[in-house]
């Protein structure tokens, strides 16, 4: 299958796409552009300028959103104008910022950080965290370079996670609502199992896992057993995040980036940084809502 360009957003780094079940709109962030994008069901695109780089945006069960700025998680109002700090993150580690996130099955937010210092090597100084509905911050994993690909199986028993620099899509059994009994099992896939590297990911209603393959120009679907069983190609090299959206949740939406492209590459692929879409044969799960409250 091939994805079609539906929004020529020119995102520097498009990320964290989702369909909000409260209004049916599709939201995503341009991290380096410091903007949040909203696509309505009528095809209208709105842009909201942020006070900082937003690594993720996710919907609350009440009006508003939870947003991850580089070193801080905040609650935003529905119009994305007012921001209330919830917790600071890794203020003692220079060069890291908050990146990919997902609402967990219990109404918390699982998010990770990204080491922006790439030279000479991108050191694994980052972590994966869980912010509970009560506002408690818990470290789940450490020794990470680029947190991505977090999502959960339809029944909430399995958590998926990828460190893009490592290339694996890892899996964990979620044994308790407070994540105190997280058990790693065999990986779903490795870097050798698909083009490019794993970036954002999402799970469909059958338990398949879609992986945006940054530098691989595609998104690959893996069965729960780890077998590739679907693919969507897009005409740019940097897909970053995937989400199953649309009235029936059967349209795979793919964000992308323009960073790390030469002028020649951008001339050849002017759609870089756009939002792409392709119909698929298995629908997604409705986006979970976060139960976090401003403290």
CATH topology: Neuraminidase
Strand and helix order: EEEEEEEEEEEEEEEEEEEEEEEHE
Task: Find the CATH superfamily.
Answer: TolB, C-terminal domain
CATH architecture: 6 Propeller
Q: How much β-strand is present in the residues?
A: over 45%
Which quaternary structure do these chains form? single chain
Number of helices: 1
Principal-axes shape call:
globular
Mean pLDDT: 97
- Structural class determined from secondary elements: mainly beta
Backbone CA Rg:
17 Å
What CATH first level would be assigned?
Answer: Mainly Beta
How many structural domains are formed by the residues? Answer: 1
Instruction: Report the sheet with the most strands, covering strand number, pairing sense and barrel closure.
Output: 4 strands, antiparallel
How are the strands ordered across the major sheet?
1-24-23-22
Distance between the termini: 46 Å
Let me know the number of strands. Answer: 24
- Helix amount, in percent? under 10%
Low-confidence stretches: none
